[in-house]
Amino acid sequence: MSAELALHLSAHFFASIFAGYLIWKIWQKPAASFLAAIAGGVFVDLDHFIDYYFVFGFDLRWDYFFNGYQFLKSGKDYIFFHGWEYVLILFFLLFVFKNKSAKSVVLGLALGMFFHLSLDSALNGLPVRSYSIIERAKNNFEAEKLVEPERKAEYLLKRQIIKF
């Protein structure tokens, strides 16, 4: 794993801990808030395994996985768990639930995901819209349609250079 990826994953973890801390300060539900924030802020990345499976099947090569070759080879960004739509639904659910424990879990998931998607957008240099499931579906999940024009040439060049 590269130092850059380790830093990226660490940022997700610490942002999730921060989200859990904020919720704990509000509702005094430490276990629920921290676990939910970590689920929303870290485990959301498990969807990368789905994208990998679509391209390479069960032949898991960690170097391919950690370098994101599944995205380069397929040209698709499915990442089904990465979606602003989930954050909106979770924030809406805050008004539905009355129980403080349930609210702390929902808010933990929402804040964890919010921080995760915000960090991904900033650290990956992708527009915020790239993390909308609706936007990705509208563009047939094609990665080259989701990057900014100035990064499109770099992305297409990488696709040509990498040999699988």
Automatic annotation (TrEMBL):
The chain crosses the membrane at residues 6-24, 31-58, 78-97, 104-123. Keywords: Membrane, Transmembrane, Transmembrane helix. This is Uncharacterized protein. It comes from Candidatus Niyogibacteria bacterium RIFCSPLOWO2_12_FULL_41_13.
